[in-house]
Amino acid sequence: MSKPISLQSVQAAAERLRGVAVLTPLLTSAELDRRLGARIFLKPESLQHIGAFKFRGAYNRLVQCDEAERARGVVAFSSGNHAQGIAYAAQLLGMQATIVMPIDAPAIKREGTEALGARVRLYDRLTESREQIAADIASATGAILVPAFDDVDVMAGQGTCGLELVEQLGSQHLKPELLLSPVGGGGLMAGVSTAVKGLAPQCRVIGVEPEHYDDHVLSRAAGVRMKINPASTTACDSLMATQPGELTWAVNGELVDDFYSVSESEVARAISFAFRYLKLVVEPGGAVGLAALLSGRVLPAANSIVGVILSGGNIDPATHAACLAQFPQP
Amino acid sequence: MSKPISLQSVQAAAERLRGVAVLTPLLTSAELDRRLGARIFLKPESLQHIGAFKFRGAYNRLVQCDEAERARGVVAFSSGNHAQGIAYAAQLLGMQATIVMPIDAPAIKREGTEALGARVRLYDRLTESREQIAADIASATGAILVPAFDDVDVMAGQGTCGLELVEQLGSQHLKPELLLSPVGGGGLMAGVSTAVKGLAPQCRVIGVEPEHYDDHVLSRAAGVRMKINPASTTACDSLMATQPGELTWAVNGELVDDFYSVSESEVARAISFAFRYLKLVVEPGGAVGLAALLSGRVLPAANSIVGVILSGGNIDPATHAACLAQFPQP
Predict the structure, then answer these.
(1) pTM, entire model
(2) What CATH number does the domain located at A7-53+151-326 have?
(3) B107 within 8 A of B128, measured Cβ to Cβ
(4) Interface test with chain A among B23, B53, B279, by most A beta carbons within 10 Å
(5) Reported ipTM exceeds the 0.90 cut
(6) What's the gap in Å between the CA of B257 and the closest CA on chain A?
(7) What are the extents of the domains in chain B?
(8) Sheet containing A178-182, strands listed edge to edge, beginning at the edge strand earlier in sequence
């Protein structure tokens, strides 16, 4: 099957995002390098607008709307980061955004979405269909529905974070040998794997999931897209997609070398590590790649160049404090 | 009085630190810019080795030791960040470090110092003289005593953080119009004001202190170095110097345009803001510049270019959680 996006799609998205998205820095930590015996480069998308990479894909999609489309607005469903990404991109472009969001989304994400001028329509994850609610809004208002991940412009936009990572390493005359990225629906992973394999084909690319939302691990083993139980819980609210996207899987099924899962406590420890040693606020879903390294589930080769995407930092203070209390010596 | 350091001292320090210190990024926040109506550029020295700018000065001092001096080791007294800066610089240079540290220093700082291979000698701030203890160790062992701020190499090293800030703005074709930096003993302030006034003479440079440790505010008003009550308390443990340094004041008394102080609750709110909107872990002493802006004590001109040094991120989880709880909507 031909892939729905290419390195060129990601590069075109990077042009659209230039001067609009935050060019997030590439960070290093002597403590992390010492522990892992490798050279770890962190891409903290927590420092992106709205505290997560999601702004990239949202803006890359919406900036391509014509005037009539902009006037009709945008609708999206999301547990939070996609919501804020759409809301902020819409605000910059003068569009009205309506977000369909689960009742149990972290308060920080709902408030953040509303503060960006979006309307929020709450729904119950177990009894209502967010797809139906969003489709109804779209058909009633003519608003464009922007999916959280299964969309070529969204995927290409998210990939700019991987493109930047490879370019930032390149400016230090380095090439990534291993790259870890969180995987929810697979939009970030698809964009990032496209960019990284396009520019550094020898790099091993790994997707990381929470253990109860390991639909990519299962799909890889089965050879087809598998769906997991949507009633499972995880602190990684941003990675709660239950099945790989159709378009994202067409990319990730081919380009991603391996999928791993991490436990809830490994994630909590990574969040505490980020607080103590990196001085970064990282949300659970954003910390899975770091957790895979710190837990020893993924072992980088000695002195190898490793990229890790920390995909977001939108975490409630209470959840954050609980992780620090659980792992006072991370 | 001629000034003890120059722009050239800071530039020479930058050469020594190149590839050794972290080139910390310059970060922006749409939320911060919106609130202040200005273009705010944050220099997060929390992302520096040991979580604070102090590594810069320590390394700049110790790397200039000859072999015989290195063999005798180094001694320093510090509430924590200078301790860790000295400990890490000594470790890189193969020197034994001994740190004289108050019993009430945050646990995270004492543990961090010991983890870097330093010996720690605890003392009571109210009944013992850290200067005497350190001098005794130096005379018994021949170790070099490195002051936390009143030393030309330490001051020049800290200034590299300001030099980088101006250069990073310059690479975006911008010049700082206003710069805020925390002030404890004045070492960072002296290096930074030297660099900034040297490269951007029109920039207004402001030092910020905790309200009960406002010895620079008082000294500016009096025209001479004033000492405040050492029994005062503040959460800003890294800014608890009771009097401007002699050498640092020779610089800061002339180059710093204004000194301001901020309240403890303004600092706590800035820490909560950094968590929620910047996704950065900032310690109390590191947050005073941000606090001066968020509280409205310092008002930048509309659309002006403002640099803010976030000088460190070494904060205990309990203190951090308390700030977030005190200001849930910062």
Answers:
(1) 0.96
(2) 3.40.50.1100
(3) no
(4) B279
(5) yes
(6) 31
(7) 7-53+151-326, 55-145
(8) A39-44, A305-310, A178-182, A204-210, A258-262
